[in-house]
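Database export, one record per block. Field names are fixed; values are copied verbatim from the stored entry.
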Amino acid sequence: MIDDEKPLVWLHGEIKTPPFSTKARIEAGCLLRQLQIGITLTLPQSRPMPSIGVHCHELRTNDENVTWRIIYLLDTDAIVILEVFEKKTQQTPKEIIKNCQRRIRLYESA
């Protein structure tokens, strides 16, 4: 790892095949790698999620028949993965938002 790269810190979820298709897993991995080396992602790949917290974003990966979301926090020294889930509705479920907020509190208190 190069000195200025940020590590991935997984608090919840994983990206593997299955349930992700191989193509979607590789796409998600490439997008996370871009974040690690400091590339700022915007729509359509990523969007801010201020409803979860400051510096929180939603990474979007479209699979064959599934839309995957990876909620992450851009911390000063890491990319923190808060949640990986299949998105089935327009809005992010309130339970997902609450769980991510709880994980941020636990991460920051550690």
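Remark 1: The longest helix spans residues 94-109.
Remark 2: Residues 75 and 108 are 10 Å apart (CA to CA).
End of record.
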